[in-house]
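Same chain as my last thread, 134 residues:
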Amino acid sequence: MNKIKRFVSGLLKDFFNEQDKKELIEILTTSLEEKVDDLVEQGKSREEAIETSIKEFGDTKDVLEAFPEIKNNNIKRKRRNQVWFSVGAYLIITGLTVYIDLWLTPQYLWFIFVAIGLLFWPLVMLYLYFQVRR
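reply #2:
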């Protein structure tokens, strides 16, 4: 049953606060264990029953359909963090390339290509954030 608990924990790792997560893991684990017991009674081996119950259970998307407000809030927060991380990384990398360019080869302004090429990273993250906000 350790495999079932790992599966359920993996499904919920980025969602819910710790208390809610523990309760939900226990509820879902118990439900899956009961399903495994039913399948074993029907004649399947224990390993086969565990695999079948996990396949039939679904994925995180299926579980979170019961909690739409949690799903949207967590995804929004995650996307917002990705936007801020990409903007910060863009500024650091661009700043370093400007410094290196002006220090080593001031006659060539190659940092512009790096800055323009790298700009797509924060723009994509911003696009994904606005997609989730809708």
